[in-house]
Amino acid sequence: MHNALYAQAGGITSVINASAAGVIETLRSYGQTPRIYAAINGIEGLLDEKLVDLTNISETTLERLKRLPGGAFQACRFDLDTIENRPDQYERLLQIFSHYDIGTFFYNGGNGSMLTAQKVADYCQSKGYPLRCIGVAKTIDNDLALSHCSPGFGSAAKFLASHFLQATLDVQSMSASSTKFFVMEAMGRNVGWLALSAGLVKDVIADLPLIILPAERAFDESAFLARVTDLINSHGYCVCMASEGLRDANGKSLAVAREEHANGKVYTQYGGVAQKLAQQVEHALNIKTHSANPDYLQRSSALCVSATDWQMAYEAGAAAVHAAHKGEHGILPLVQKTQDTPFRWHFENFALADVAELEARVPDHFLTADGMDITEQALEYLRPLVKGERDMKWHDGLPDLRPITWTQVEKKLPDFKK
What we know:
single chain, Rossmann fold, 2 domains, 4-stranded parallel β-sheet, 15 strands, elongated
């Protein structure tokens, strides 16, 4: 029997380590994998031969792993070059796999990470190396195509809705003499799934003066300001949730934090749309406004983990191992809803090539005609994904989230220049 290797990639989620635990425990349950390794820092760490041996990981450490947010094995943002430009990268990976007798590679990531996994699968297959390459789904953006939802999204949505509710109560209580408009920014450079989470607050405050601005709809400043004015006139205040990737009718982003040039590509970091919208309202209506950008908080909060999402993330790891055990290769298990009430799902395998770099956008029927609110169908979709809570252990007044220290295996191969 051959060994297994697990790695994390891309932006993390508050439940990605549950998927890691799902992989480890399910591999153990089959009892057919001599050694279980994890790469530190994803595919980049794999190229560097930064590996941890998890074969004898203790139950205590596993339980800690299940509760930790962030990437316990350090997720990377690193893209393999094309095989034409850097064949040595692929040769190096094959060298690592061969040296450590890796028979199955589990890559835990989103759309872009699945493209990397596909590249690795194709190359190893072309060289006749018996590697099973299996994706493990995750992304807070909820944009994995062909999936009902993405592990990681439910907890991020729960965080945003919970904190948006609390901020709304603050604004509501102060609006007579202070802030009348509040806007929060949600991650989502091309999709507005997370922005939709604010709609859940309507289950608590029925007549909520709310505006939601998802990335799928072009921003119209005049219509937006008119809607803000109407809501403030009728309710005394207005609250708003906007996607960080909001664009106008010409496709121009409302706010870009910075652009980085690396590996011949331009990487755009979005941020600041909430502040921009608050300024527009303040200048147009001459009222006090506030804005908030939770940024990393929405994807790293262990205090707002959805029990449904945690279970889904764990099962994503387990499903990947089940697929490998059946001899599957080059696939990604994705969530398929099987029942509405109570909410039930199972995982179905899809080819990496069918998922890689595809993007699931918010459907039109989830948005109102003016594009500034969500429909009951959207709420029905969101509600089950944020349900349930996980108990949190505390230590000296803070969440007991001490990071796990891993001991890397001794390197045996020459250094590699990435």
